[in-house]
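Hey, I was hoping to borrow your eyes for a little while. I've been puzzling over a protein and I'd love to understand its fold better. The fold is given in discrete form, as structure tokens running alongside the sequence. I'd be grateful if you could look everything over and explain what you see. No rush at all, and the record is pasted right below.
>
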Amino acid sequence: MKHFVILILSFIAMAAAEMRNGTGFFVNSEYIVTAYHVIENYENTCYYDIENDTCYQVHVVDYDVDKDLVLLKLDEEPDNMPMVCRIAHTELPIGEKLTSYGYPDPLIDHDLTIIPMNIRVLYRYDGNATFYRTTGLLQYGMSGGPNFTTDGRVGGVSKSIALNERNTSNLIKSTEVVRLMNRNGVVEYPNTRNVRKCAISILNSNYVFRGVHIEREG
């Protein structure tokens, strides 16, 4: 028992020290969208299938640092393919209600975190119209996650908390996701209205994930 506890504590410490996680979503059976800062400076990013405790390698297809978006492609086919998200192709109005989905700590807590949002302003504090400012506070690990409209479309992508404004977060507009996909000839084919099933976990390092598994099993 003592050895097991030590392994678990070691696992948590290792994950906290070396592994960065975020959230993302599939736009078809091959391509994933998340926030660029989730995977920045890492070459071993993977899609973490929480239910099966398996990480599937992906690679970067294209990214935009200023808009904080990245398009990833699977290198291996998952045993169970998640649902694909529907994307809003037009800008949303002030007052639009959104629901943010994400996995703040998927290696420990497998449950989705769900946060209600409301669009306050159609641009960031610095005037950048790439982003929405919303009510509601995102949590660490939700970056790159989908924010759904009431009809089940992704209206924005989680980016950050606005530190200079109380109870405010920044979302990347879904229209920027559409531009990134169009630039790379990626076609969406949504197959669900069940938003819980198309939010996924992203880990920045498959090597660290596998190393943790070897340590736990040893």
Remarks:
- Residues 2-18 form the longest helix (17 residues).
